[in-house]
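so my prof wants the structure for this chain in the tokens format not the other one, which i didnt know existed until like an hour ago. anyway here's the sequence
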Amino acid sequence: MKKKPSFLQAVIPIISMILLLGVGYGIYGLRAEVLMLISAGIAGIIAMSLGYTWEDIMNSIVGKLSKTMPAILILIIVGVLIGSWMLGGTIPMMVYYGLKIINPKFIVITSFVVTAFVSLCTGTSWGSAGTIGVALMGVAAGMGMPLPIVAGAIVSGAYFGDKMSPLSDTTNLAPIAAGTTLYEHIGHMIFTTGPAFVVAAIVYITAGLKIPVSEMATPEKVGVILSTLDKMFTWNPLILLPPVLVLYGSFRKKPTIPVMLLSSSIALFNGIFFQNFTLQQAFESTISGFNISMISGIDSTSVIADIPRLLNRGGMNSMLGTVLIAFCAYGFAGTISVNGSLDIVLERVLKSVKSTGSLIVATLVSCFTAVCVTSNGQLSILIPGEMFKNSYLARKLDPKNLSRSLEDGATVIEPLVPWTAAGVYMATTLGVPTLEYLPWAILCYSGCIFATIWGYTGKFIAKIDESDERYQEYLKEHEKIK
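here's what i got, hopefully its the right format
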């Protein structure tokens, strides 16, 4: 007979995972994948002691994985996209003209604003960071800028669009979980994400202006990079067609994967016909990534270190590490959710809620905890959303307050946690460890600060009318429970 876990039984796997990752990963540098599998084993033992079978656990894990396969497939396609854009000269061309046009003093704020715009247009933080973000990191590396600052600005910009774009999956998921509409949700997020954007912009402008000129690359170094890129690639306007196609597909709300594959195909065409690569090299670039050794007439050992660091990247294989950690994370999420352990822990959190401010803080903390435990932003929106929905209605708070808090506490926090798929992806793609860019990903955590301030002051907190259909449905449901 299957039993419901006690609070102690529910919290043991969560505490175990936090301790294992905090000590094993954070202090001793052990692989997070193995630590998560050990945590899943602990959760599985507890589930079996409550009467759940191995088949129950496997069905739960498979259910979690099946829901995330589209995102994992997109992740792999991003590897193809980066490799093909490198081969076709798209990213090198962006770097080349970026080095010529962008003022070193404004590279940080430029990285933030440009990535935010692209992410807003595409609805994907990962795609934005993996394409324009990679190009901007190349420009920053060429200028000799402190890379953690630029990486933090790129992550902030990428997740601004992820929160505010109607094309984003989490932006659509949050209002569904909370019980509001998409555009009500986006409009309400302006009150936390807007101030966070302004604060981040001020910091990035100030940081760029304060970086000593002596720390930046000398004009000679920039000149060497420009001349080397000019020898390696042929420039023409058609090379920029792949990113234009991605932007067009986003505006027209076309399916993401076909658009990305078409963009990659055009980039490979450019690589073969304009850059004179072979078909075999094109295929290799999509699988193993681009390497400057593919370029004929260039001695890869004689170029400065910045060139291979910039260009040698992409390919499906580069994303396999991220896919692996995602599978291990979902294995733990599936195991712990089979007996409702996370629900029980969140229910205990609700007992301490006394005011609107504490309710919003409880929502933020629960989302953050769910991100750390499940390593998945979508689950971290859905689970707390379901748990807190009636608590907001009971206080006559519009559900869009909840949907805003779900994104403030989950979506933008995910890339700041080193063992999540987002944290690993951003660190791998941008070439900067998560904990190094974390202090500079200002928009990602300042939104939580404004959400807390508005919660306790009552500013920008929307109330729901008693005649509202959603409130009336809550009353009917509440009466049935009584």
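also thought this was worth mentioning. The mean pLDDT is 84.
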